[in-house]
């Protein structure tokens, strides 16, 4: 999530449909999916083709698979039957009984009580709601009927188990949350009781405050005293607005809320003290921490409040990409840390409690807002020199943000050396200081951009493209006058003789100048053939080093391609010429690896070549100056394909030689003649 990079992607065939959420088996590190209701698929990270993954066709439709950290996956069928995955895989076509009749499952959840997995699900039939509690390993099943509520019905459910008691929370259409307590039966084996027990419910919380009513769509339990509700907050005379709210059920108070202006899907998930929700078109992750509930905290009268530090690190406003340091007005025991889609990596820790006599980081930065440059940098250096704390990384992010804010307010101020020192010596990320690279682009600080591209794991594709365009558009003369790290190019580009590469004989893997003349009918001038794009570096060493930093930056093709299409044609051709040059250089080596530090890999070079051709192929075909380049590239790739094709033909013979070598006795002298046919 922090890097915005897909780690794996699997697709079912055309016409097939995934019919329940995919889960992970915590014990085997496998993924489990169901498509077309009955077809079970199981695969691992390294599996590429889902169609070749393990497949089992079941005898009944699956409603949901639940995965428990220490209990294994549990499968709930649409007919109400439950099986553990192990039992199901022993005989996939085993008969599955129907537990419910004419009822539709509305919600399900799985829990561990001791060593036993417990599955709870609710059903609806003709306006009546039922609750089932199953222990699949004990074949135990209990059915209950929910007490009816006049003029209101349940919208969603959630549950938790404490002290052998199931606490079922029901969000009703009358804007209230009700609580139902279900004691767990201590039986070893029991069939479904014919007579249903009616469960009474009690009002837990009314979702209204100061005349505003929350029309909830989803709720989750945070701890025994706090719940989170996602929904539309409707106030008299105002338009309803979607909000994520935190409620204290013990004292019936709204702890805090945040408006979600881009809208949500209506679903809210909670896992390991993190919220997951869809905000607009992105997945937003919000970390939270619940302190012990107290009346003082619930009504905002907690004396030892952490509000100053909350304003520095626990930022709701990243949901709208606003400023880093914001005012967090409500003082509550539920401390929240909100992260946008790209700043989960670096802010993992909650804020440490401050001593009463110590200024918080947020307050210190506010005090230094109008300080002189000398005082500002001195105080910030002292702040960073403190002993490591869980929040030191976030503190340094705030320091960089304070510097970039001053750069934006005062165009003449730019602490180049200080910023470079911070980025080089600290483990930062783009999300911790999102304005840094934008300021560096504005100041044309190529060296800082190079460092950021090499070190930041989560740079947005838009910024990567902006850096590429800036590097390509900067003149060689200007680049020679600035400091750039050349470690990635000095081993394969000769910087002597006016920065022109010393020409060496090119002997590529499988490539011969005379080998593929029939591939393209275009006749090249002799001068062009003697100095082809693959033999001479088209850019100087400084620009090459900067472009190498771009090649190292992680990206997602879907997000980068639209930006690459805006790259001017001349710059695109220059970049492709450099990529072709690197490709030829890699092919000179048996291991296809360039010498040096942080050099691009053959995979990075080829991926960028494909991206660039996808974005500009039509334009390049039309431009006369690109014709020779495309022709040379085509011939070179064609020659390599032929070379590797010839290698594959003798692969079997080489393997046989290796096998014979293992069988040969090392102490016996012999001469063998092997004929390769």
TrEMBL record:
Molecular function via GO: RNA binding
Residues annotated as domain Nucleolar protein 11 N-terminal: 1-289
All copies of domain Nucleolar protein 11 C-terminal, residue ranges: 363-675
Primary subcellular site in the record, as a coarse category: nucleus
Subcellular location per the Swiss-Prot or TrEMBL entry: Nucleus, Nucleolus
Alphabetical keyword list: Activator, Nucleus, rRNA processing, Transcription, Transcription regulation
Protein name (record): NOL11 protein
UniProt organism field: Certhia familiaris (Eurasian treecreeper)
């Amino acid at each position: 999530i922090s890097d915005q990079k897909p780690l794996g992607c699997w697709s079912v065939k055309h016409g097939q449909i995934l019919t329940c959420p995919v889960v992970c088996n915590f014990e085997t590190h496998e993924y489990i999916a169901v498509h077309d209701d009955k077809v079970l698929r199981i695969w691992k990270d390294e599996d590429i083709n889902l169609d070749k993954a393990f497949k089992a066709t079941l005898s009944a439709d699956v409603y949901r698979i639940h995965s428990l950290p220490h209990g294994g996956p549990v499968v709930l069928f649409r007919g109400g039957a439950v099986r553990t995955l192990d039992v199901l895989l022993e005989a996939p076509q085993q008969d599955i009984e129907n537990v419910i009749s004419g009822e539709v499952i509305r919600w399900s959840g799985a829990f561990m009580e001791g060593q036993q997995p417990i599955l709870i699900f609710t059903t609806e039939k003709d306006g009546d709601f039922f609750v089932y509690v199953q222990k699949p390993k004990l074949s135990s099943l209990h059915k209950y009927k929910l007490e009816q509520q006049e003029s209101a019905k349940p919208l969603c459910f959630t549950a938790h188990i404490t002290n052998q008691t199931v606490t079922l929370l029901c969000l009703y259409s009358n804007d209230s949350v009700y609580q139902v307590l279900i004691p767990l039966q201590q039986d070893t084996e029991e069939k479904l009781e014919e007579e249903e027990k009616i469960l009474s419910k009690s009002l837990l919380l009314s979702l209204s405050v100061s005349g505003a009513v929350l029309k909830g769509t989803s709720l989750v339990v945070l701890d025994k005293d706090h719940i989170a509700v996602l929904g539309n907050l409707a106030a008299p005379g105002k338009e309803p607005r979607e909000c994520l709210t935190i409620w204290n059920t013990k004292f019936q108070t709204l702890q805090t809320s945040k408006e979600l202006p881009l809208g949500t899907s209506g679903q809210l998930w909670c896992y390991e003290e993190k919220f997951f929700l869809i905000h607009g078109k992105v997945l937003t992750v919000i970390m939270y921490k619940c302190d012990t509930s107290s009346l003082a905290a619930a009504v905002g009268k907690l004396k030892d409040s952490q509000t100053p530090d909350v304003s520095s690190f626990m930022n709701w406003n990243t949901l709208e990409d606003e400023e880093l340091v914001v005012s967090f007005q409500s003082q509550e025991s539920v401390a929240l840390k909100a992260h946008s889609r790209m700043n989960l990596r670096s802010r993992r820790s909650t804020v440490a409690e401050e001593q009463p006599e110590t200024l918080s980081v947020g307050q210190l930065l506010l005090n230094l807002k109008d300080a002189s440059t000398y005082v500002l940098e001195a105080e910030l250096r002292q702040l960073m020199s403190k002993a490591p704390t869980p929040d030191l990384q976030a503190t340094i992010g705030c320091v960089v943000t304070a510097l970039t804010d001053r750069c934006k307010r005062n165009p003449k101020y730019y602490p180049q050396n200080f910023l470079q020192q911070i980025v080089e010596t600290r483990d930062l990320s783009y999300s911790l200081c999102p304005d840094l690279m934008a300021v560096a682009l504005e100041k044309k600080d190529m060296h800082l951009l190079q460092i950021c591209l090499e070190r930041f794991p989560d740079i947005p594709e838009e910024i990567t493209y902006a850096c590429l365009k800036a590097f390509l558009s900067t003149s060689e003369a200007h680049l020679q006058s600035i400091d750039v790290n050349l470690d990635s190019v000095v081993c394969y580009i000769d910087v002597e003789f006016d920065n022109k590469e010393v020409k060496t004989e090119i002997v590529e893997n499988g490539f011969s100048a005379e080998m593929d003349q029939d591939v393209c009918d275009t006749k090249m001038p002799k001068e062009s053939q003697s100095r082809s794009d693959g033999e001479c570096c088209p850019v100087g060493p400084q620009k090459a080093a900067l472009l190498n930093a771009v090649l190292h930056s992680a990206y997602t093709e879907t997000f980068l391609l639209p930006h690459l299409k805006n790259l001017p044609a001349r710059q695109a051709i220059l970049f492709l010429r450099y990529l072709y040059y690197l490709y030829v250089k890699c092919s000179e080596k048996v291991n296809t690896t360039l010498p040096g530090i942080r050099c691009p890999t053959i995979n990075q070079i080829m991926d960028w070549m494909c991206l660039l051709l996808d974005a500009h192929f039509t334009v390049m075909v039309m431009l006369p100056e690109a014709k020779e380049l495309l022709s040379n590239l085509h011939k070179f790739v064609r020659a390599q394909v032929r070379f590797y094709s010839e290698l594959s033909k003798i692969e079997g013979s080489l393997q046989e030689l290796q096998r014979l070598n293992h069988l040969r006795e090392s102490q016996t002298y012999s001469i063998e003649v092997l004929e390769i046919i």
